[in-house]
Amino acid sequence: MPRRRRRLRDVNRPELHIANYLDHPNYGSRMLQCDHYMPPDRYNPIVEGYLRDTGFYHVSQIGVVQCQSALINALVERWRPETHTFHFPVGECAVTLEDVALILGLPTNGLPVTGPTMSSYEALEAECLDQFGVAPLKKDCRGSFIKLVWFRALKNRLVLVDEVQIHRSLCRATRVDCKEIDGLLTLLLAWAWIRLPFIAPIPSNPQIFPIANRWQNWERENRPYRYRNLENYRRDLDLLQEGQFVWEPYAIGRTDPDVIPADIRQHAAIWSARVPLISFECIEWHASDRLRRQFGLAQGVPDQEEDLGEAYGEVLTGPKNQDWSGTHSFWVMHWMNRYSHVLVEHIVPSHHQASVYLQWYRGRYGDHLHLSQIDPENQHGDPMHNQEN
Question: 361, 92 in Cβ contact below 8 A?
Fold first, then answer.
């Protein structure tokens, strides 16, 4: 039976909610096709000061990071929706607030991204007048959306686009009939490459920030890497050994602390917080208690998985005027108390915690840790092994 194909659009827009796509129960039956798009036109220089003030300057500097669709598919296969983590033979791991901050250069410590959603033209008109001083015509809108061409026409006339909404969920991608989604493929790829360097393209200058730019235009010097297939990555991840996965890639000795700007580093205290990630109608979970080794802490058997109830996977399927800050007030308050949920080391860490955890982990999830259909000794067909020296 042929696989259903879906397209992922990597428009270099960071999102915190890739989990909504990964959590779909049928994701394993589909092969994702990744389309690559050039980044948007360069912004008007007058905007740079405002980008710095609002925290979006660093992410605006990320260039073209070409996708590797086979690796994306291999990661999707390892995602477990009940735990909100990837499951590798060496343990659980996931993209964290720390990764978002250092790979993309985004601020991670502030008010939750929530509030009302407005679906009427009148509401859009009023908001645009307030933000831009000019409003689109009805022909410039489609439902509750404003066509991108209208914004492009404004770029040389506006001094400031006041609000840049970046934390949009990928909930639409969970529908079986969805054919393309926007996504954070740049974040996901860079996360995999910095933690699994043995399957990564050769990075450029390690002094570059944001870290994603280490792999800008990587395909020019790493052509064989482009042709690795899903089976190659399945085998690599099946055979993953402790020591091959880099748990702390940003530690001193691996990443020069002087590379990280002060405005990013100042929020490090909350990167390990066990909190909800909020984007209007959608709530995802930052399962840091299952990722303690990514923060330099001993990993024990984690607590019960967090149940987000009806808030999990919420999708806007039509016009809806609703104030999500009230609807999700419980989760909003949890985030506002984030400093109370930062991970700490166990008072008396056990030398046997790691072995106890791995025994529990492999006993519970062992059947899902090996997905390869390829003989581990057979390297035929892998361009990374067959390339000429």
Answer: yes
352 neighbors 359 (Cβ within 8 angstroms): no
SS (HEC) of 66-128: CCCHHHHHHHHHHEECCCCEEEECCEEECCCHHHHHHHHCCCCCCCCECCEECCCHHHHHHHH
**Separation in Å, CA 184 to CA 67, 111, 202, 263, 383:** 11, 21, 21, 22, 26
- Could you tell me what percent of the chain has a pLDDT over 90? 33
In which residue are the tokens 């709530």 written?
Answer: 283
- Element housing 7 (H / E): strand 4-10
CA 266, CA 107: separation in Å to the nearest integer?
Answer: 10
Torsions phi, psi of 51, nearest 5? -60, -40
Question: How would residue 225 be classed by pLDDT, with cut points 50, 70 and 90?
Answer: confident
**What's the start-to-end Cα distance of the chain, in Å?**
40
Residues 189, 193: Cα–Cα separation, whole Å: 6
The alpha carbon of 117 is separated from its chain's Cα centroid by a whole number of angstroms, namely 23
Tell me, rounded to whole angstroms, the distance of Cα 43 from its chain centroid: 24
β-bridge pairing 85-88 and 91-93: antiparallel
User: If you average pLDDT over every residue of the chain, what do you get?
Assistant: 77
pTM of the model: 0.78
Confidence grade of residue 286 (pLDDT, cut at 50, 70, 90): very high
Please say whether the beta carbons of 93 and 195 come within 8 A.
yes
Burial of 82 (0-12, 13-18, 19+ CB in 10 A): exposed
